[in-house]
Amino acid sequence: MPNSLLFIPDISGFTHFVQNTEVEHSQHVISELLEVLINANTQNLQLAEIEGDALFFYKENEVPSQEKLLAQIETMFTAFYSHLKLLEKNRICPCNACATAPNLKLKIIAHCGDLQFITVQEEHKPFGQSVIEIHRLLKNSIESDNYALLSEELLKIIGLSSTYKSKLYSFLDSKDTYDDKEIRYSFSEIDNNKLKLNPFETPKIVDFNCSASIILQKNFETSASQLLEYITNYSYRHYWVKGVDKFEYNPDEVTRLGTGHVCVIDGKRLNFTTVTKKANIGEIVYGEYTTDVPIDAIYQFFIMTPISEKKCKLTVEIYPKAKSLLNKLILSLFMKRATIKSLQTSINNLEAFILQGGIKEGLESAQASSHENP
To answer: Which InterPro entries does the annotation name (predicted)?
Structure first.
């Protein structure tokens, strides 16, 4: 009798997504979503393999009850679409990968059977007929890209009707033939409007009742969107930011509102959080702030305004926050002049980096950073 669960969450639209969007950001988005699905594993499923856009889980010698299995499926759909909503609401990057990420879908395939195992490079991997069958079920005739599919064998084990209906699920009978063998299953399309998405914090748009204390401008021979990538991709930062010993960040994460990074300067850690402020039509705004400074806080904004397809203007605005008389004194006597000098050098370094065609070196740096920042 089949007694092990096989379970595959598969991100639909992945191939189209990667082929038609910026590759690096699409990889980050898929990586984040796979992490979200792994963290949504409530049934102690074993992860056998990450298969590009899918995860292959199994539970040896045990199949969860009907209630637990349906709850597990709902939890993964909820986590997946909650994260897509976060990416949509907190997005600052205008690239196609970030803009189209909310169009991704999820399908979950569940099956059961006797499991065998083989050892490959000292790793224990599921093997056998049931493993072949669940992967065949990924290639089915269902027209939707957003559904849960349970094999007939699994339905029998958990005692679930092939036409079971609830608030979220509405299963239908179906079948497909693979290598002259018919495999029956039931599937339910998932209505995302019926999912209770997890709440997340939407950082507010920062509003200042004063002009920036420091404003610097410079034209760049690159597009506004490309300049945004040079500024927000922290693997490039050490090439152009003056005075920072090290940057710490998540290399598998696309920068968005609420994400953070750390600048280490002379052993002191400055924690920065991404924010934004109102922008004029056509402008792209990236902002960050820290409270790890001698005054109350410093906000800095990089505003990119297109001039032509391959040219843009960068405006950097600094808003220091100093409430006490002492902090105001520190700001006026020491920080403002030093900040202007450091910022001007960084902007010049950024221009030199772009003119030298630093994109190749920057990508290599990003790969190196991914090993340094696991």
So the answer is: Uncharacterised_Rv2561 (IPR020503)
